[in-house]
Each structure stands twice: as structure tokens, then as C-alpha cells.
Amino acid sequence: MPREITAFSNPLIKYVRDLRDKRHRREAHQFLAEGLRILTEARDMDRLPRMLFYAAASAAHPLVRELVIAVETDGGEVIETTPAILSKLSGKDNPQAVVGVFDEFEVGLEGLDRASSAIWLVAERLRDPGNLGTILRTGDAVGAGALILIGECVDPFSVEAVRASMGALFTVPIVRCDWAEFLTWLRDGPGQLVGLSLDTETDYRAAGYSAPTFLLTGNEAQGMPPEMAAACDILVKIPMLGKADSLNAAVATAVMAYEVLGQQ
């Protein structure tokens, strides 16, 4: 049976609220996800929260009932609370119907099967959680094998990144590693490394892509370092007909991913 918490001073409420902070998240190895759509996506991928919070007014919703049963069956804890506390947990004035606390999860390079997909997404020093979430959604849409994060990227388990992923966090594997580790792994098997760059004359539509293709997107402000560009099998650019010199990193990744998908 769900237990009821209505006091802001409850220690569990403080613990969960603090998961919005990166340091606390890293120490706890847990993160927040909110909304029926995202939590239902997670359930469909056999990932259930360790704790599920919902407001009494949402209890009759069929998806909420399904989540409550699934979490309790899995041994998790279900808490009925107030909209005000849900707002405190999520940091939004109009909170979603449910908030879940999940254990962090990710895989290492050794856990990837490069034969499982023709497209893989690689991002270097990605800083914006919205971009990370959008790239995850693109990865889900094109059936990417994983999103490989190189260097000091934004935390994929931050509330903002999880929210922006719209559930794709639970459908696209995430790997975090450094450049040397990734390049060693990549060159130990098949894989074409394609870099998005302004320093090339090769139009992205003129290049040929062979599976598995690894699409490398550099930092939003600085692009990719020269040593990474030099390691690519091919550098391509998306032509710009206006005054802007480049597309947003997430948009460019999506354009490239669909070109690769179309060719393959």
C-alpha cells in the first residue's frame, strides 16, 4: 500500500529534492524523472523507479494505477503526496502527475555491440542539457546503437536533460568515456567515424556512409579539437545559405543522422 507524506520537513522529501543537485546525484547514484509519458516509457523498457510519488488527485488515472502496481510488484516504494510537494520535487510550478526516483544506469564501451545498429551518435563536451535530450530523441528515432559522450559533457541524468529526452534516456544506451578510450575501442573493429565540421568542403550529401557509422558532434561553442578532426575518416559540413555559420548541435546531428539513415 502507498504511504502518505504531506510534510515538507519529511527527510525523504529533502533527499529527493536534493537529487536536483549534481553533487548529491553523484553521491546517491540516483536521479529524478517526471511525467506519465517518461515513466511509462521507462516501464516499457523494464526500468522502474525505486520510489514513485503521485498526488492523490491523480490516483484514479489508469496509467498512474499501472505504475503504482508495477513499482510495488518490483519492490519499490510508492508515496502519495500533495501537488505542492510534487512542485518542490520537480522544481516546476505546475508539476507532472508523477515523479520517480531511479537508480542511475549506463553502459561501458565493452558492453556495446557495434553490429547491433548502423548508426551511432558521439558528442564531445556537450554542454546544454536541452541539446543532449534532443540528441537522445534523435537517437531513438533513427535506431542509434548508443549515445557516446566524450569528455566533460553535461550530466545526462540532470532533471533538465531527462525532461528534454522525453523518455529517450530509457531507450538509447549512454556511454561516458574519454577520447583516447573511445578511439582505441573504435579502431579495434569496424566503424566509420564521420565528423561535423566547418573546416571542410565536403557536403554532407555528397559523402558516402558505411555501416556502422559513428557521427561525431563537437562542443556547441568551440566545435571539435583538431586532433579529433584529424582522427575522423571523413569530415562533412551542412551548407548554410543564410548569415549563420552553423546549425545548433542537436539540429545538425539530426540532419546528419537522417542523411545516413537514408543512404543505408
Tell me what the structure shows.
There is one protein chain. The protein has 264 residues and is α/β, with parallel strands linked by helices. The chain has two domains: 101 residues, 60s Ribosomal Protein L30, Chain: A (2-Layer Sandwich); 155 residues, Alpha/beta knot, CATH 3.40.1280. It is 36% helix and 19% strand. It contains ten helices and eleven strands. The strands form two sheets. It has a six-stranded parallel β-sheet with strand order 8-7-6-10-9-11, sandwiched between helices. It has a five-stranded mixed β-sheet with strand order 1-4-3-5-2. Helix 1 runs parallel beside helix 5, helix 6 packs parallel to helix 7 and helix 6 runs parallel beside helix 10. The longest helix is centred in the last third of the chain and has 15 residues. The relative contact order is 0.14. The mean pLDDT is 92.
Provide keyphrases for this structure:
single chain; 264 residues; alpha/beta; 60s Ribosomal Protein L30, Chain: A; Alpha/beta knot; six-stranded parallel beta sheet; five-stranded mixed beta sheet
Q: Oligomeric state of the chains?
A: single chain
* Low-confidence sequence ranges: none
> What do we call the CATH topology of the largest domain?
Alpha/beta knot
Major β-sheet profile: 6 strands, parallel
Total strand segments: 11
What is the helix tally?
A: 10
Strand order of the largest sheet: 8-7-6-10-9-11
Global Rg: 20 Å
What class, by secondary structure content?
Answer: alpha/beta
Q: What portion of the residues fall into strands of 2 or more residues?
A: 15-25%
CATH architecture of the largest domain: 3-Layer(aba) Sandwich
Please estimate the helix content. Answer: 25-40%
Order of helices and strands: EHHEHEHEHEEHEHEHEEHEH
Shape: elongated
What is the end-to-end distance? 51 Å
**What is the averaged pLDDT score?**
92
CATH class of the largest domain: Alpha Beta
Number of domains: 2
